[in-house]
Design a protein that fits this description.
The complex is a heterodimer of chains A (139) and B (175). With 139 residues, chain A is an all-beta fold. Chain A has strands at residues 3-5, 11-16, 21-23, 42-43, 54-60, 65-69, 75-77, 80-82, 96-108, 111-127, 130-138. A six-stranded antiparallel sheet of chain A has the order 3-2-5-6-7-8, with no helix packed on it. Chain A has a three-stranded antiparallel sheet with strand order 9-10-11, with no helix packed on it. In chain A, strand 10 and strand 11 (130-138) form a beta hairpin. Chain B is mainly beta and 175 residues long. Chain B has strands spanning 3-11, 23-28, 57-67, 70-79, 86-93, 109-110, 121-123, 125-126, 138-139, 143-145, 147-154, 167-174. Chain B is globular. The chains are: A mainly beta (139), B mainly beta (175).
Chain lengths: 139, 175
Amino acid sequence: MSTVQAPLKYLWHVKYRDGSGQEQPLDDKSILHPYDPETDFQPSAFRDIDQDDLVVFSLRGLYDTFSVDLRTGLFNINGVEIQLHDQGLVFTEPLQLVYWRQVKLERTGDETNHYVDKYFFGWKTLVDSKSYQRTMGIS
Amino acid sequence: MAATFSYSEDNGTATGSPARGTTTTASRTEVNWKNVDDSTTAYNTQPITAGNNSYTKYQYGVFTGTFNQISAGLWAHTAGTFGTGLTLKGVVTSTYATPGTGTNASLTVDMTAAISIGSGQTVLFSTTGPYDQSPVSTISAAGYSQYLATQLQTTSSTGLGDTATATLTLQYNEN
């Protein structure tokens, strides 16, 4: 290993309020934020997501689809709806998307294992000035 | 696609302000503790004599490629058992000092025993370098981890030959 990249098992897909969609391209490169030669940096396509208009965020693999609806806070696994927040919780502010991949680099001797350990996605919001966050982690 | 990662290593006399190594070697594939302050000499030609210590290693992560943010860094010894008389000391730091074989008191964490990565040391990041004196928890452009500094310390009872192989894990979040 000299330089390594963790391959992605799931790619994201988003649905906007107007019904349009956007998906993570295979090269994951942002269109709105192109490569900057000065800093030698290419932002990812995640930076292109319009967070204000987003209603559904999904992670799609070969066989499974996981999603969260930011209008209701409900998660969905292959069509099965799951509620992770308390029944009595009433949202007063918009739900904001949270998404990250937890990456591990395990180096043993001359070998490095570089992989995405888990994909986390969900939402965060404020209710009566108190912070709430619910995420689902999938491997 | 995702962030592209590699390890670099600093060696030699501390130079500059903030201090860094005189020599930087990119794309390091291993961390071998040995009796010489360089990155590439084979460890078996510069063995540590029982009762002495290795030179302190200053390695760090380099993040390039395609990502939005890198955050939540953790670092730990996560697998492998060192033999009798061996102690692995380490610390995550933004301070480079000229490596030596004296017991490095700056390496305040005993990393000899393997632990889960969730209990690892916090790693911060910078877009400037591992020596940045104001590292942050999240970067949104190409950057570096802090130095991941280690020293293998031995006693006169340490056995001959190679040590057991250890796994050092760096964990981070990206999107």
